[in-house]
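#help-structures
NK: newbie question, is this the right format to request a structure? protein is Winged helix-turn-helix transcriptional regulator
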Amino acid sequence: MADPHPALLMFIGARYVEQRVSEAVLAAGYDDLTPAMARAAARLRDDGIRVTEIAEQARITKQSASVLVDLLERASYVERVPDPADARARLVVLAPRGREVQKVARRVERAIEREWTRHLGAERMAAFKAALTDLREITDPYR
């Protein structure tokens, strides 16, 4: 493709990061974390998130999100806690094991950002990040 769409170029970069993170997580011994589980866990917020929100953001059914959260919970990556805003609801939060995996992922993400900065130069990398941040205003309903 001579002139790929910017969205395809962003996807290629995101897929590269996902692959590098996945390889590092596997190398660190977390071999029970599937790509689908990792994508669901990546949507967790520090203050927790409901399964319905995971489903909405991941564009999967609530049932699929529930299955993924069940798998994450059985593997001790997440836990369900009461939602302080609604006694009937539960929030999904990272468990200690999930925080350990998150640290591995964040280390790889920072390493990739340093690699990209070396490749592009600090000024172009800053402009790239600023442009992507600006695009969130019109592309990310969950920002």
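mod (FA): yep, format's fine, and the tokens are attached above. The mean pLDDT is 95.
NK: thank you!
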